What does this fold into?
Amino acid sequence: MSIRKFFQRLLSGPVLKMATKFSSKPNKQRVHEALSKLYQHIQSKPGKKGLLIDIDNVPQKIIIFSDLHKGNKKLSDDFAPAENNYLAALDYYNREGYTLIVLGDSEELWKFNMFTVQKHNHPSFDAEKKFLHRNALIKVFGNHDIFWNNDPFAGLQLINTYGQHIKIYEGVILKHTTNGTTINIFLTHGHQGDGQSDGNKFSAWFVAKIWAPLQAYLELNINTPAFNDILKTEHNQFMYEWSSKQENLLLVTGHTHQPVFESLTHLERLYKQLLIARRENDTLAITRLQDEIAFRRQEYRHVSEDYLHLKPSYFNSGCCCFSDGDITGIEIEKGEIRLIKWKQNGVVSERSILEKTFIDDLFK
It folds into this structure.
């Protein structure tokens, strides 16, 4: 018996019990308090934990990607299948003059150390450098790359990775004014309120240095919102509830790996479109939507009971590590917000717009 298998037998049970007791299962009050605290901090002390950017005074085109989980290019690397699409997307957005916001979990530092990630991901780091050279790269940390926030050597690692100093933030607020009203678009990874990785300095250090390596060594997939539909649903719900109570605010996160647009998941939008098609007696659309719903329900079944009455205040960029290599993100340009997907068609990566709306229309 190998040493790993011995420790798997010995420790898997206790570790799973600990995970159940101290898991990252979201707690609504903790999530809401953490979001409020960060949001208020960025507004009162911009530049320390987050940036405050007026996108009207200095017009910008913005692309938001999250949850790459760059790894070692082996079977356990979730980013490997999506790398080509990510590189094609960055080439396009750099040519078009976009600002790139990487919204957390860019590097998978629970499973791999930073030296390994650097060694196997030169193409994507080089592509991101092009944005940095234009002063158009903003990097936000998540729970899987919380190393950037709590390790004393993070600054040196960043210089080694990008060739220059780069500050890592916990959030960003984009300010957009319409008809005399200022709308704040609050961007953060979405792990706020997670007891494992959003607690005090000790808990963050413990997760990064002890807990995550132990999970990786034992080859355990501990429940997180990205891999558990129940936690994913709860987490999205808590994020939505917080955003819906704020005045003149849109919340954009990652973390769950599930794209959300105007507070609706893709499956919920399909059900909404099906209702409209039935109302209009559009038989072709009804058949198409029923087939699509049947397909999507294989991967995700939950539909919110009040999905037809949700305030369009919550958005989620999805991820750049879908198993089929597709990546999703959110674009913001000239007052319009779009959910986009990059998918490989043969040897060519193609961009498609899944959803779009003008920000002003969300507040009418």
Summary: The chain has a mean pLDDT of 84. The domain at 27-258+313-363 is CATH 3.60.21 (Purple Acid Phosphatase; chain A, domain 2). The radius of gyration is 20 Å. DSSP finds eleven helices and 14 strands in the chain.
